[in-house]
Design goal:
- By secondary structure, this protein is an alpha+beta fold.
- The chain is built from 12 helices and 4 strands.
- It has a 4-stranded antiparallel beta sheet, with helices on one face.
- InterPro entries: DUF2179, N-reg_PII/ATP_PRibTrfase_C, UPF0750_membrane, YitT.
Length: 276
């Protein structure tokens, strides 16, 4: 999948697919239940509830305003990165029918949040954007040094607050719930679902441990020179990256050789390169 994302032509198809997922999440899950979970599309849902203007039209209007801000306050490379999504998402919103696929409001928001997260996560994977309210956080970062992720969250919460006068408190609660689900799912989309564990081992029996692991598994081993935290002496530390399912087997192998070995385990979401 990573190779197809890097292909010049297929990359644009992936971007289109990501924007289509966002359009589906808005028109088939959020908008039918009048829940505005932040962003330009959230503003558009609120406007549709109040004035009956189609979501795609309002989204285009908001995106044009954001592009104007980007033109004056951001560099041209950032403007180019958000330009395609800023025009294509409103078009896809206009073309995607607004259908109430799930009648249960809570279930609709849960499913819509997952679909939305996959779309935005794919865009991030390809360094693309749907434009909209992602622009103000970038401006705050450039001129005030504020974190974009924090400012984007603030922006989304402010937009979500307008659910209260438009659609009620329940819609606001659902919007915040949607933001939480989206954030959690996006974390998995961005870092991958193929989760592994990086295991660090320090032991006086390290040569035997390495041999035992090589004999009974196919894991690559990396040895690093470190300074012991308690002894303040130069030592070797073994690093092994394993699948979740093989983690317990590795720990048992190490303890079989040295029950007192020092073991540190951390989550490894992306692993590149070979082993030594």
């Amino acid at each position: 999948m990573q190779k197809t994302m890097r292909h010049p032509v297929l990359k644009w198809l992936w971007i289109m697919a990501a924007l289509a997922l966002i359009a589906v999440s808005i028109n088939m899950f959020y908008a039918p239940h009048a829940v505005a979970a932040g962003g330009a599309t959230g503003i558009a849902i609120l406007v549709q509830e109040v004035a009956g203007i189609q979501v795609g039209i309002t989204t285009m209007g908001v995106n044009l305003c954001m592009l104007a801000l980007a033109w004056f306050f951001l560099d041209r490379s950032t403007l180019k990165r958000i330009l395609f999504g800023s025009f294509m998402l409103p078009l896809l919103l206009w073309l995607t029918p607004e259908i109430n696929l799930v009648t249960d409001r809570l279930l609709a928001i849960i499913v819509g949040s997952v679909v939305f997260a996959f779309g935005v996560g794919l865009l991030y994977q390809m360094d693309a954007s749907s434009g909209g309210t992602t622009v103000p956080p970038l401006i705050f970062k450039k001129y005030f040094g504020l974190k974009p992720s924090l400012m984007l969250l603030v922006t989304d919460i402010v937009v979500s607050l307008f659910n209260i006068p438009v659609s009620g408190v329940e819609a606001f609660i659902l919007a915040v719930f949607a933001l939480t689900i989206t954030s959690l799912v996006m974390n998995y989309v961005e870092t991958g679902f193929d989760r592994k564990k990086a295991v660090y081992v320090m032991s006086d029996q390290l040569p035997l441990i390495k041999q035992q692991i090589r004999d009974e598994t196919s894991h690559g081993l990396t040895v690093q020179q470190v300074v012991g935290g308690f002894s303040d002496e130069a030592k070797e530390m073994l690093m092994v990256v394993v699948e979740q399912s093989n983690f317990r087997q590795l720990i048992e192998l190490v303890h079989a050789v040295d029950p007192h070995a020092f073991i540190l385990t951390v989550a490894a979401t992306e692993v590149h390169g070979g082993s030594i």
